[in-house]
Amino acid sequence: MVEAAVTSAASSTPPHGLWFDAWERLKRNRAAVAAAVVIVTIALLAALGPALVAHRYDSLDWEQIAAPPRWDGSHWHTAHWLGTDRLGRDVFVRSLYGVRLSLAIGLLATIVSLLIGTAWGAIAGYVGGRVDSLMMRAVDIFNSLPYIFLVIILTTLFDRGNLFVLFFAIGAVGWVTMARIVRGQALSLRRKEFVQAAIALGARPSHILLRHIVPNAIGPVIVYATLTIPQMILYESFLSFLGLGVHEPLASLGTLIREGSVEMEAAVWLLLTPAGLLAVLLVCFGLLGDGLRDALDPGDS
Amino acid sequence: MFTYALRRIAAVVPALFVIVTLSFFVIRLAPGGPFDQEQALPLEVKANLQAAYGLDKPLISQYVRYIGGLARGDLGPSFRFRDFTVSELIAQGLPISVMLGLAAIVFALAAGIPIGIFAALHRNTAVDHGAIGLAVLGLALPSFVVGPLLALIFGLYLHWLPVAGWEYDARHLVLPVITLALPVMASVARLTRGSLLEVLRAGFIRTARAKGMNEMRIVWRHALRPALLPVVSYLGPATAAVLTGSLVVETVFGLPGSGRFLVEGAVDRDYSLVMGMVIVYGTLTLLCNLAADLLYGWLDPRVRHG
């Protein structure tokens, strides 16, 4: 990565490094750009949308029980755009709250797993030797465990409803792949001349790790993080669907899909709205992650 | 091969130990016990119950007792289903879950491999793009979205198949098996396509072509066998995916498999039931991984000497 920056700086064209090139490549990938636009749109809608209408996520409308979606131009502020559920709660607002929760938890759990995984992998790869083999042995064991079952055990550990603590825990279990990726990078970076130079200059290991190893290993980390977010969103919805996640009156995409699948005979829109949102989010994060991978690691594609 | 097998088996043992130990201690840390109900029990009754189940002893001696029972295949009594042991409960549902999972994996292979081959042989045509698009979709859509949608379309609207429920009748299994198989099938198709394309670029295939060998024969006799190796190593993760998916599918379609015990046990804080399920499903996953590893080592000598 450093070499790329040096060669481009030496040429006569204005200097642009790895990140600029990656950005250029990403912009040319239409699917990834479209996916990013959709994700941002949904996120904005989730942040601002509930303020557009008069309903709250837990307010009941006894006049409109299980009402189908209806577009009413003159009463757009009070209309139930996507219908209501069996308690007369607005599906549009509840779905957007579900998206909020899913996105927040997906990001939080990803950040946790990213921090732990990067630290673990960078230390193992940089220190090497027996420390490395011991740390990676732990990673191997963790990796062979069926992840979702551990997560289900963890759901019994915390009081229901305290989702952020739970997802902190899920992120803390999900760091192993990240650790592997970073370790591989750290192993090869350790032998690079600029790291050897830093060692020769007497830099402290913590300084080398934070200033040289981690910043240069960040590309694959970002790619994997983008692919981790939908994974975490999926885990949350999965648990909520099974009744192990958030509880009423809070809404998550998983609980909404569960309610919808129970009510689908009478009220299809209860299933289609959250299921559609979840599917679109997952597909878009997948496309964006693929696009980032191609952009940051062009040799592989 | 023998040392390779021993190495693989030796790698499974610590993982099993970690599963048992971790789940035991984590679950005992959980707030609230199995006897905390809406209406609190009198203290003496609760103390008696805890003594009867050995919950009043120090954690370490509970652990030793549990491991001892485990060695005899005894997973302990269920706290909620008072008249059953955990082993009995699991033995009741497991055959249905295993049948469901096996059917799903067979279906996924039987459909996924041909789709992958077909897409690879018609590379960059509309057929290929269609197949890959479907595979991406199949991977992205979780089973708790696909399941209800399939039930909606084929059960409620078209009336072709039963929406949910269980009788000894193959028709009740069609939608659950498809729901379970879909993501696995998508992965298999993608893997097959990718590795077949790679193998078709290899030197020995060029040699076969140079000899003037018939293209069909090249694909079936020479390219396919090495191309299916990644699919073999995917079989391990596939079982994990199917076991996880079965939790959802059994809930969606109301099947009396063992997956629901894991969920109900977690909701009720029925320690021994959750632990028993995690140990059984965890062991199944690890054993299937081991089987896939051994199969791979047998098929590809490079792995066992590497």
List keywords for this structure.
heterodimer; A: 301 residues; mainly alpha; MetI-like fold; elongated; B: 306 residues; 77% helix; 0% strand
Plain-language structure description:
The complex is a heterodimer of chains A (301) and B (306). In chain A, helix 3 packs across helix 4 (91-127), helix 4 runs parallel beside helix 13 (269-296) and helix 11 runs antiparallel to helix 13 (269-296). Chain A has a single domain (17-67, 82-300), classed as MetI-like fold. By secondary structure, chain A is mainly alpha-helical. Chain A has helices spanning 2-10, 18-28, 30-52, 91-127, 129-144, 147-157, 163-173, 176-190, 193-200, 205-216, 218-241, 253-263, 269-296. With 306 residues, chain B is an all-alpha fold. Chain B has 13 helices and no strands. Chain B has helices at residues 2-29, 43-52, 59-71, 86-121, 126-140, 143-157, 171-200, 203-210, 215-227, 229-252, 259-268, 271-299, 301-305. The longest helix of chain B has 36 residues, at 86-121. At the A-B interface, helix 5, helix 6, helix 11, helix 12 and helix 13 of A face helix 1, helix 5, helix 6, helix 10 and helix 11 of B.
